[in-house]
Design goal:
homodimer, Sulfite Oxidase, Chain A, domain 2, six-stranded mixed beta sheet, five-stranded mixed beta sheet
Chain lengths: 368, 368
């Protein structure tokens, strides 16, 4: 498909968020790309249908029976597999927390034109499939292979460039991570919107690495230069900065907003008295969370941490609060085993990636 | 919970949509309340997890084993049922198309502050449960009963009023409609966000009637005056108009946007040549769709209609188009057996309810 004769040169405008307004096309993206509901952070596993979705183009509706995964390019022993053959390989089930790299974009000013996430683009599912590494070894990458690229069936335009969604990992990254080819989610076949019939799961990385509707794995002897690898998902200080790749998730925590909401504003209403705040915390690259603090009435307090349910799954935390009448702003922040701590203010990035600033929850506590 | 001592008086502002901007709280609602993906209109049944969600407050997480449905108020033979008892009653499975009353709100100017739906708040699922009418008869409503009210477990504030979500129907409405108490959706137990463990389904009505997290059915000898019955879900010409209740769905149609999208704008790109456009059409109250027309290059053409899969399920339509290079705006409009036709321009309503104006899809067709 020709790229030069079309008007899809994209929208690269910056949006001044001082006035807090959003464009029609941002709301169009928000209507399509759905977030978690923060109250379900009380659960270890995000309910099916509430795991966040970030869908670049249209969901391809693929015939699972006819679907083939091809290993091609600079492999000495290229092959193809059907879904039944993948299910006959050794199977593993892992709980994995995935977060969208754009989560928190709405908190960064000026804001890049893209999906206007607040806090909700994170979820934990149980993924079932087969480890990728033995399949790569079976295909025998040539000695000069530098990248393994993964291509989905979803096709569209971004900034005027027509392409299938594609991402790459190095052989070292594949060996270090528990990368999986998965066909099931929470004990059920993958739903169309989550990549049916086959997707990649790259635990510990932001979600863009976990390519959906996976059809082709290609060994490359040059660094992968696909749009989604080199044109986006990069940290950039300015529009002219070539940038650094977005990879593993930054340490982050969220709380279940306490009390009950107002419909239109989502502000919280609470009776005075003791409250147990609960939430989840996670980091990337398999690094555990070691500490969560909650700011209550201006004082940072230690939260209790529960045991992680898996190396790549979020950690539940809780913290007691004696809610007193008036307006309150609650915050939480996590620290990981590398010593990384969530910042209180959003880290600057041109495209609004990886905003892991501490969540703020506005609460009104009534008179007793 | 006292209502008078809190700041939850809501946001009743009108938004001038000439400049196409949305507020932070509207985007907050759009991040929570997710729509269908229009490409899945190709399927008879909306994939699980893509059925639209409009959640007024927080999702209550209910223990299905302990849940009881109570019949109370002006019944001569009130009783309670557990979920197992409901599952032991005669079971029916029906495909039902539900649309949010606020679908299309973003197309109305000035726009009410609420969930800024574009086109996506519609879906069709297969619901399994038991008919409601025999249970109402078993509870024996007194002769002076005028309304049957249905209460969910979800609690919160709207315009300063704290309340559980509640709606009512008359005995005649319950008898006329295939109203069901459902525990399963698409062959699986209800998901938390869809009303688990038990919800009402009122086929043919906008979605607000299908009360989720249903816990109590109350017979009333006075008209139900709950917030969601009398303060909202009413058609009003002005802020001082007492209004008329929103009930059955208006005739409407949507198409799968052809071609492939641009990420940021969702504009469509197509190669020139023959294209088969497909979509769905529906109306309310069990009235079938009799006609769908598609505007192609300024001419309204008849679409082919397929057989409905159920009295309350949408109808698939298709129409052939020879796409020629250039920019196009495609539209579709349906007519139902009552002779109601979709308008080309949005019908005015203060709260932006029931906008059934013909969908517009912007398409760019490349040179061959």
């Amino acid at each position: 498909m020709a790229n030069t004769d079309n008007p899809f040169l994209g929208y690269s405008g910056r949006i001044d968020t001082k006035d807090g307004v959003y464009s029609q096309s941002e709301v169009g993206l928000a209507n399509r790309n759905s977030g978690n509901l923060l109250e379900t952070l009380a659960l270890d596993i995000t309910p099916t249908g509430l795991h966040y979705l970030l869908i670049h183009f249209d969901v391809p509706l693929i015939d699972a029976g006819a679907h083939r995964l091809g290993f091609s390019g600079a492999f000495d022993a290229p092959f193809e597999l059907g879904l039944d053959e993948i299910k006959a390989l050794p199977q593993v089930t892992l709980p994995v927390t995935l977060e969208c790299a754009g989560n928190g974009r709405s908190g960064i000013s000026p804001r890049a034109h893209s999906m206007p996430w607040l806090y909700e683009a994170v979820g934990t599912s149980e993924w079932t499939g087969t480890p990728l590494r033995p399949l790569i070894e079976r295909a025998r990458p040539r000695a000069d292979v530098v990248d393994i690229a993964f291509f989905g069936a979803d096709y569209g335009f971004d900034k005027g460039v027509g392409h299938c969604f594609g991402r790459s990992l190095t052989l070292e990254q594949i060996a270090d991570l528990d990368v999986m080819l998965v066909h099931s989610m929470n004990g059920q076949p993958l739903l169309p919107q989550h990549g049916a019939p086959l997707r990649l799961i790259v635990p510990g990385w932001y979600g863009m690495a976990s390519v959906k509707w996976l059809g082709r794995i290609e060994a490359l002897t040059q660094p992968f230069d696909g749009f989604q690898q080199v044109q986006t998902y990069r940290f950039r200080d300015s529009d002219t900065d070539p940038g650094r790749p977005v990879t593993t998730m930054r340490v982050k925590s969220l709380m279940v907003p306490p009390g009950v909401p107002d419909w239109g504003t989502r502000k919280r209403y609470l009776e005075p008295g003791p409250v147990t705040l609960v939430g989840r915390a996670w980091s990337g690259g398999g690094v555990p969370v070691t500490r969560v603090e909650v700011e209550l009435d201006g004082v940072w307090r230690e939260a209790r941490l529960e045991q992680q349910t898996g190396r790549h799954a979020w950690t539940k935390w809780s913290c007691d609060w004696l809610a007193s009448p008036g307006d309150h702003v609650l915050r939480c922040r996590a620290t990981d085993a590398n010593g990384a701590v969530q910042p209180l203010d959003p880290p600057w990035d041109v495209a609004g990636f990886a905003n892991n600033a501490a969540q703020k929850v506005h609460v009104f506590v009534a008179e007793g």
